[in-house]
């Protein structure tokens, strides 16, 4: 399997992560990382059933030990010198929304644990393998981070999530400036709206709202990731915002 | 000709405008607007020779009379009720760079004349025809504006150009909020780098610099415009930055 | 009168402009510019009655001829070589809020006429006289522009006003970079909220709202202008936002 | 001592922190927090000698235990219900500048430890005491954070510092939105330039550069903090940038 071209997607679950995995499976062996087996097993199974190649590895991205263990396993499966064509950091954290003075230190740190430390560990594991394939792959090696409205605005009673998202954007900008000149496409997306996954679609319907106007289809988001991945070195985009046409902003 | 799908590109010359016209000609009859015949005649001729359809109309975008006259002519050729699938405002102005106190009122106004008044006139002429095709075309009706680094930073001794570009971005943002919910994709690009047209390539070569690292290929820019045009309503991007991988920012 | 230290305030009316004039009158002869006599006559009269010095000059800031005529008159009164210690551009325009396709060219241009052309004319008239007093006055020569929320966000159906405010901010940034190194303090304020003048106070009261939480007192704004004016060259601020503590943002 | 009005300054050392402590000592008992005794002992001693009141408490802001211990001690000295009129978070971390792939996890985390966790701990300790004095003090209770150019731009090979500064700004914005409406002034400064402390002045002189043009005087920075602290509730500023007039930006 070592000669496969590889894409790694961190944060595969319902919605965007799953859609990204499916899209990149059209061209790559896709490694799906998620904290729980249940998050990725169906995606991996579906990709493999439909003629693609996918591997799922249970990974706690906030743990150096867990990330190392996952990449050790990948080395065994893919060969020690495997390169990565695309790495997508789509992991996130459930936002904690409460008055700041009621926030515990653990709740506060939750955003940073995944989006700050987790992104660091993911980047250190993937960037050397992305750099290796610069000028080799048909598309530039790409490292893409998933951001949100909270990446550029920090709201009241929402610091844990905002902090994490702001750090992630800081990382993405620094990486674009350090690794862009080496030929790696580093990009950050701002998903400004609610993503249409079964639970949000159901909630909108129950509220009597039109889901077509107000929800972003995961497949449409994925087109943006694929476009970013396939940009030539002559014209890299660092950031792109994505919102449904009916969204107020 | 009235049943053709139409794209209108303002500011067709060498470089980006010409590349946009060629790209959109793959699917649309392309109307090329430029101040001088010499700017667009070769592009129009090449598109028509290669099996596409293009019309060139000499237009001073800063003049209400000239813009009206051009669209009157288009109505005669395309039918009074012709719709527009995509409109690209790529017109610009030659930056005047001099100490502010040496700037004449005319030099100062130059940026606004094209990028402020011109964009207003272009938008008023195209938006009703874009709105008309919402939900009719295979892709959302799109209105795309070409910005630059100077759209988000204002430099010393450069106010005329910056003013124009800031106004253009203000317009694009307002339009996205007003016409996005109506189904029109309104987007703004930030071209952050030098575009590789014959004169800039030559200048780089003479300076002994590698043009691959430092110039943006017009064709690569155009891929961004086409991507923006083909985004589904579920996932519109308002703004995208584009720079060559070797650019410092 | 030629040995007086002079401050020029453009856009003196009720509210901020009047408060700025009063504040700067504590240290300067204040020149009040406004389109109509009624806007400034009471302010000028009050300053002169209370021991200060003020001159009012009816000026259409959007007209080169009117601005020239006003400064010619000032030269006659103050001497041809009078310097300016502080210049505040507080002029604005009544926002036109309507669907873009119903906007006339004149309505559209209204924002730019005052905030783009007017600011240009004001800056060309005052900057040479501000530069002249660098290192002479007790405080750095200062050129301050009044912005608004619409200076950084462009809303639907609001392009005329936003365009003008974005241009004004572009100007202020360019000037800060060109004239800051020459010792002139150039600053831009973002007034994010409703200013408490008699009409807005009355409207809030009629709506049963607490004016203390939601309105900005003009005197409080003026403290910001005075603080900006008195910053030492070692620590210039370019931009400051101002909002009442109860404002949502 | 419990009836004293109290200001708390975190990150007192040479330069800004020391200058802030001296300035606020004109009106408050100043509590100086720093990791090492040497950082604050001279400041505390000088304030007390010159008729002010200051207390120094050695505190590792990144440690919940250390912060708790420091505030326990303050409760003993100042009374359990002491209020705080102003709290300034001026702590920072020495930037680590190296290629990302050579960065250790500890080096990476360094920025967040002080600026993310430290600011959280400081805010949780001070905000209840700041809220308590709203509408009691002569000036609004104020919580001010010191940012830098790296708070709004993330540079190559600089992620640890940028991450921390971006988080700090996210916090400051969220706090302004949550505690501003409660009457607490929350502000963030962007210090864009090198601060003139003995070591930087010496370095500039050795490089043959004029220190007057290029260094920010700590006393001038402090004027900005004092201005922010004394703003009335009617006109709060959230953010202010500060740079020497000769700075390129």
TrEMBL record, chains A, B, C, D:
Coiled-coil ranges (or none): none
Top-level taxon of the source organism: Eukaryota
Pfam families: adh_short
Transmembrane domains' residue ranges: none
SUPFAM superfamilies in alphabetical order: NAD(P)-binding Rossmann-fold domains
Name listed for the protein in its UniProt record: Oxidoreductase
Source organism (scientific name): Talaromyces rugulosus
């Amino acid at each position: 399997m070592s000669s496969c071209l590889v894409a790694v997607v961190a944060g595969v679950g319902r919605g965007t992560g799953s859609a990204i995995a499916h899209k990149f499976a059209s061209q790559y062996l896709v490694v799906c990382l998620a904290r729980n087996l249940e998050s990725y097993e169906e995606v991996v199974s579906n990709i493999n059933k439909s003629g693609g190649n996918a591997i799922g590895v249970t990974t706690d991205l906030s743990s150096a030990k867990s990330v190392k263990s996952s990449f050790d396993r990948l080395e065994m499966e893919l060969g020690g010198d495997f390169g990565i064509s695309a790495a997508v950091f789509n992991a996130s954290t459930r936002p904690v929304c409460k008055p700041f003075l009621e926030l515990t230190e653990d709740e506060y740190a939750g955003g940073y644990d995944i989006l700050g430390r987790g992104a660091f560990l993911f980047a250190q594991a993937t960037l050397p393998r992305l750099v290796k394939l610069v000028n080799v792959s048909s598309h530039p090696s790409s490292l893409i981070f998933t951001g949100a409205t909270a990446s550029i605005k920090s709201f009241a009673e929402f610091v844990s999530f905002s902090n994490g998202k702001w750090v992630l954007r800081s990382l993405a900008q620094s990486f674009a400036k350090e690794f862009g000149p080496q030929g790696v496409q580093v990009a950050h997306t701002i998903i400004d709206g609610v993503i249409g996954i079964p639970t949000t679609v159901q909630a909108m319907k129950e509220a009597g709202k039109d889901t077509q106007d107000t929800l972003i289809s995961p497949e449409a988001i994925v087109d943006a990731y694929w476009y970013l991945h396939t940009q030539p070195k002559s014209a890299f985009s660092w950031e792109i915002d994505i919102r449904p046409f009916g969204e107020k902003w």
